[in-house]
Amino acid sequence: MNAGSPAALLEVRALHAGYGASEVLHGIDLHVGRGEVVALLGRNGMGKTTLVRAITGLHRARGGSIAFRGEAIESEAPHRIARRGVGLVPEGRQVFPNLTVHEHLSAFERASDEGPTSSPAERIGRVYELFPRLRERRTHLGNQLSGGEQQMLAIGRALVTEPRLLILDEATEGLAPLVRHEIWQSLAALRARGQAILVIDKYVQRLIRLADRHVILEKGRVAWTGTSTELDADASIWQRYLGV
Ligand SMILES: Nc1ncnc2c1ncn2[C@@H]1O[C@H](COP(=O)(O)OP(=O)(O)O)[C@@H](O)[C@H]1O
Ligand SMILES: [Mg+2]
Question: How many domains does the chain have?
Answer without folding.
Answer: 1
